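Intended use. Records like the one below are meant for learning the mapping from a protein sequence to its folded structure. Do not use them to infer anything beyond what is encoded.
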Amino acid sequence: MIKDEVTSNHRQSMADYLSPLARSIKPSGIRRFFDLVSTRKDVITLGVGEPDFVTPWHVRDAAVYALEKGKTQYTSNAGMPELREAIGQYLNDSFAVSYNPANEVLVTVGGSEAIDLALRALISPGDEILIPEPCYISYSPITTLSGGKAVGIETFAKDNFKLKAESLRAAITPKSKVLILCYPSNPTGGIMTYEDWLPIAKVVEENDLIVISDEIYAELTYGSKHVSFASIPGMKDRTLLVSGFSKAFAMTGWRMGYACGHQDLIGAMLKIHQYTVMCAPIMAQYAALEALTPHGLEEKDRMMESYNQRRRLVVKGFRQIGLECHEPEGAFYAFPSITSTGLTSEQFAQRLLEEGNVAAVPGDVFGLGGEGHLRCSYATSVAQLTEALDRIGQFVHKLKQG
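Structure written out for the chain above:
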């Protein structure tokens, strides 16, 4: 009898041991879709947000030289002092925000770790985290894993996917604590100007919100310079600026990010960082330091000019095909509407892959306002983009012919 009772209390499978929070998280909609791509040949991929450029030679050489010099130890938990100094100088020169490298800058394992650290440091159970959508797919799951509640705020193509103060105000409740911003936007390419930020800053101040501003695409703007939310009067002390080297510097695999903000928040994040990853890899830190030299900044600008050329090609191409596409003014994504085809985002992306051999991400995976759109990265060669547009055009023509 006792043996039977013990046996009946045993969990039936490994899944029964998992935390309810971990079980509730859905796999990445992007990765799930691109698992299908690996089973097909001759597919042009416009999906993963990764530059097609290789990290510049001199940046790679800096990492190799560090290895040759025996630089293989831990660094300070917060990152090498000289790298933090360079990050602070770069942000001041480029975006007019000033941070003390000693206690207001933290080097992280990619921008994603910085966002995770920030949410774990800020969230108490039940706190509501406000997230303008469509947006980067990780914000909501990380919020859930941290014990918070993600609250989406829909943005619209008619507004160029800008966050509007009235929409933000309508989403706020007594439990609202953090606003996550991502401009320039993944997936829409939308940006916010100084004038756009002012009413948002007023709502943030009135409702005593903390802001996590993901500015990983800050360097990639076309026609107007990026305006950091932290540079808006009164916002620096209540804003955590998150960025990194992955996108603009073509360093995705190096996993180099950073967070800058109030010393109390950075200090709390540092404690979690100490107990999880200890520090970012030293060789990658030397590479990042080299990326911030004048030579590295020239390479960044050269890549940005190429993205701008591709941006114009892709937007013009979608419009000629007959798919509405707002003008992306930042990042390296186009977000065309496919509603005219009568298909859902998932259906369009699936059939485009199967019938046109082009892979793009269905917009619905990015949250509110994403349905009816397709995310297409133009961080690939002009030849590939031209061929992809031709295939998409043929596919849409067939759809409209019935």
